[in-house]
Each structure stands twice: as C-alpha cells, then as structure tokens.
C-alpha cells in the first residue's frame, strides 16, 4: 500500500472510514506511523446504541438537521442494504489492545450514533499507551465539526499532534539491513559505469540521505588517491588522472 520510499503513513478516518482504518491497524500495524479516529464507530461497536441510533431511531420533529440526515443518509438504499445485510460488528470492531501506533480519538459531545461517554471511559481505562489523546468536542454532533470553525481548528491541531508522534515513531525504527547492503553495493560500482562520478556524488549529497552520504565518501576516496600537486610522475596515479583512466580501458587481444 505504501510506496517503496515511504514505509510508514499517517492516516485519519471519520465515521465509517474508521472501519477501514481499524482493519489496517489490526492487520497491518507496521504500515502506520500514527492514526486519528474522528467520530469513530469501531470502538464498542457491540454497544446497542450504534445500531439502534443509525438504523432504527427516528429524529425529533423539531430536529431539522436530524430529518435531513435521516432522509439523505440513513434512508439511502445502498447504505441501508449495506448496514442491514453486510455489516458485521464482530468483523469491524476494534479493541484498544489492538492499537500499536500512537493514536488520537476525536469525539462529539452530542453524537447521536457513537456512545461517547462509554467510549471515553473505555479508552481512558484500556487505551494507554497507544491512545495518547482523547478529544471531546463540546456542543457538536456527528460530523458537525466540518462546518464549525473553532471545532475544525481543534481537530486539525489534534491531527498535527498525531503527525509529530508518527515522525517520532518513524525516526526510532532501525535501519533495514537489506536496504543498507543494497546502497553499499551500488556505491562500489566500477568507475567505467559512471559518466561523471563527481557530478553524481555532488547531486547525491544535495539530495541527502544515505545514498548521498555514501557517494560523497566515494568521491573523497577517489580524490585522496590522486597525486598531490608538484609530485613527480612516479607517484601512484589517481583514479581521475589520464594514466589511471587509461588503465581502466580494455586492452587488445592478448
């Protein structure tokens, strides 16, 4: 799922999207640097409030937003079919001990789907040390932070905190021995394979990283083998001298 140069990722999930994030956290935790669960339905999914609130409850007559949500979301044909026939709580639930990456959880104080108080108590009791932050947005419903400026700012600040935790987790991982050996083997290629070793070394040093450092070291090694200025021709030729370069060329048939 990750490109070769990006071994870890920081992922966020909201509402039903937390199900996919839960699968990844449970099945492939080594791909996660950190994660953020926003209005999660995966914690305590066996709780009766989740299914009852989403599938069977009806909004109050004075709740205009609830009626809009019920008509356009809860009554949509494909959504109803999925949740009634293809959504299994035991396959989508996420337990706190299954979280291995640093995580943050964002809840809404007046969420009509998620059992907020129960999830708060559960994560406070069982979520440490993976769950580092549980943020409860006051006077917010499920997904309402998207249209509320201060609440959105709090969510973004939590995501930035989780990104910092992810960077710490990624930087603490040990070097992959196979990647290190591959870089070393590439740095020992014969000189005739390189069009311009100095140019390649300088470009690698500018790009940084392990390969750049190795190329810079190879450049220094080649330069150190050149004869110092003022020495006679009896000195050992450097790899960049005309004599040294000619010796690398193939001779005729013997």
Outline the fold blueprint.
Layout: E1 9-14, H1 17-27, E2 32-38, H2 48-56, H3 64-74, H4 77-85, H5 89-92, E3 103-108, H6 116-126, E4 131-137, H7 149-171, H8 177-187, H9 197-207, H10 209-224, H11 242-248
Parallel strand pairs: 1-2, 2-3, 3-4
Short description:
This protein has 254 residues and is an alpha/beta fold. It has helices spanning 17-27, 48-56, 64-74, 77-85, 89-92, 116-126, 149-171, 177-187, 197-207, 209-224, 242-248, and strands at 9-14, 32-38, 103-108, 131-137. The protein has two domains: 9-171, Rossmann fold; 177-248, no CATH class.
Commentary on this structure:
By secondary structure, the chain is of the alpha/beta class. It folds into two domains: 9-171, Rossmann fold (3-Layer(aba) Sandwich); 177-248, no CATH class. It has helices at 17-27, 48-56, 64-74, 77-85, 89-92, 116-126, 149-171, 177-187, 197-207, 209-224, 242-248; strands spanning 9-14, 32-38, 103-108, 131-137. A four-stranded parallel β-sheet has the order 1-2-3-4, sandwiched between helices. Strand 3 (103-108), helix 6 (116-126) and strand 4 (131-137) form a beta-alpha-beta unit. The radius of gyration is 29 Å and the shape is elongated.
- CATH class call of the largest domain: Alpha Beta
Task: State the domain count.
Answer: 2
Strand order of the largest sheet: 1-2-3-4
The main pleated sheet reads as: 4 strands, parallel
CATH superfamily of the largest domain: Alpha/Beta hydrolase fold, catalytic domain
Mean pLDDT: 76
Query: Approximately what portion of the residues adopt beta-strand conformation?
Result: 5-15%
N- to C-terminal distance? 54 Å
Q: Describe the oligomeric state of these chains in a short phrase.
A: single chain
Sketch the topology as an H/E string, one letter per element: EHEHHHHEHEHHHHH
CATH architecture of the largest domain: 3-Layer(aba) Sandwich
CATH topology description of the largest domain:
Rossmann fold
Q: How many β-strand runs?
A: 4
């Amino acid at each position: 799922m990750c490109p070769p140069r990006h071994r870890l990722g920081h992922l966020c999930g909201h509402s039903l999207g937390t199900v996919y994030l839960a699968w990844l956290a449970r099945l492939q935790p080594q791909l996660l640097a950190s994660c953020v669960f926003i209005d999660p339905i995966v914690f305590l999914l066996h709780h009766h409030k989740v299914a009852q609130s989403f599938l069977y409850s009806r909004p109050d007559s004075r709740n205009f937003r609830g009626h809009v949500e019920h008509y356009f979301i809860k009554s949509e044909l494909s959504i109803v079919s999925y949740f009634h026939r293809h959504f299994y709580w035991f396959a989508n639930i996420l337990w706190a001990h299954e979280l291995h990456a640093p995580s943050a959880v964002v809840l809404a104080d007046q969420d009509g789907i998620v059992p907020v108080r129960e999830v708060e108590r559960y994560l406070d009791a069982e979520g440490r040390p993976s769950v580092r932050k549980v943020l409860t947005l006051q006077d917010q419903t499920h997904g309402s932070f998207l249209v509320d400026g201060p609440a959105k700012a709090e969510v973004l600040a939590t995501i930035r905190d989780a990104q910092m935790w992810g960077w710490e987790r990624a930087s603490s991982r040990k070097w992959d021995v196979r990647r290190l050996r591959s870089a070393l083997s590439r740095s020992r290629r014969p000189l005739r394979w390189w069009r311009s070793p100095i140019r390649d070394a300088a470009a690698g040093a500018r790009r940084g990283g392990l390969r750049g450092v190795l190329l810079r070291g190879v450049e220094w090694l080649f330069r150190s083998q050149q004869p110092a200025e003022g020495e006679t021709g009896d000195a050992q030729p450097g790899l960049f001298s005309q004599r040294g370069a000619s010796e690398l060329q193939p001779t005729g048939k013997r």
